[in-house]
Structures are given as C-alpha cells and as structure tokens.
Amino acid sequence: MVAEIKKQRYIYYHCTGFKGKCGEPYVREEVLEQRFAGLLRQLRFDDAAFELIQRALRESLQDETRERRAAIERLRGEADRLQARIERMYEDKLDGVISDDFYRRMQIVWREERDRCLKDIERHHSADDEYIDNGIALIRLGREAHDLFERASASEKRRVLNLVLSNCSWAHGELTAKFRQPFDLLSETIAQSTLPEKGETGDLPENEKWLRG
C-alpha cells in the first residue's frame, strides 16, 4: 500500500496496483492507525500482571541456573581430563613411549577440545543477566507499545509496528497482522490468563511458557 495526500490535508492509503487492478477502496490513515492501535492494545496489562510475569521469568532462571551449573561442572571435568591427558602424553614422549609426530597431532586435537570446553563455560557464566534483562525489556516494550504508538510521529509509529508486528495486510476493510516473537506469546498469555483479585497472590497459567526457549 502507498500513501497519497488528498485536498492537501487528508492522507489515504491504497493498493500500489503492482499486481494489476485492485478493487480495494482507499482507506484513511486514521482508520489504519485505529486498527493498529487495537492490535497493540492486546499487549497491555496492569502492574500486577507485570510483576507476575517478571516473577515467572526469575523462577525459570532459577531452574536454568541449576542446569547451567551442572553443565559447567561437566565441562570443567572434561577440560581437566583433557589437560591431564596432554600432560601424561608429554611425559610419554619424553620417555620415548610415543613418537614426537603422534604427540603433536594428539596435542592439537585435545587442546582444541579443551578450549571449546572453556569457551562454553564462559558462555554459561555470562548468560544469566542477559536473559533477565532482555526478557523484562521485551515485556515492558510490549506493555507500553500501545501508548508509544499513540504518542509517536509517523516515522516512530512505523518503528513500533516493525518491532512488534509482521505479515501485515489490509483486505475487505480488515487489518490482519501477526505478532513477532515473543510478543505473540505475551498476547496469548494475556488472553488466556485470569489475573488474581486485588490483595491475592497467584501465578499466570502455564508459567513454563516463560522458560528460556
């Protein structure tokens, strides 16, 4: 679709005609904005829900941390075993048990495997903070997307929509769009959840949806 100014003040959108004549009538920019705002409104939720989702993320991080610690222990054990092999093999070379050529070849292989283990350990160590920070930032963006869109200029509106939505189309007077990940999950969870009454505590259904994957 392309925009066109009418009477030097009204903006209408219409099909470009790239694939031939289109029977879809022109649509006012305000109408499109209202429909997009309606989609973004699906991501809105109150402070209580925001706290529950943050708690679900942190609970999932606790499970993730336990698994990560177990993985680090396995990797550390494997790195230590490889280092011990390299040292024993060096002694065998000095004693003439193995040849210099065999020692060089196996040293390269085992050092590469040991370095891979050490890199994986470092990756596990740096993952926790990024997981929580990125998760909460995305949730906050979804929560505020409607208000951001309402206040934004035309170019900023486009940025918000490109961040949150994909596969947008207009046909027969109806707007169709899909939420990008993870906003699709957020919309689905909000739609399916019954939040607790004020003063009560509870969890959003199916908290496992907020696991790292």
Automatic annotation (TrEMBL):
UniProt keyword annotation of Coiled coil present: yes
Compositionally biased spans, kind Basic and acidic residues: 197-213
Domain of life: Bacteria
UniProt region (Disordered), positions on chain: 194-213
Alphabetical keyword list: Coiled coil
Coiled-coil blocks: 58-92
Protein name, entry field: Zinc ribbon domain-containing protein
Organism whose genome encodes this protein: Brevundimonas olei
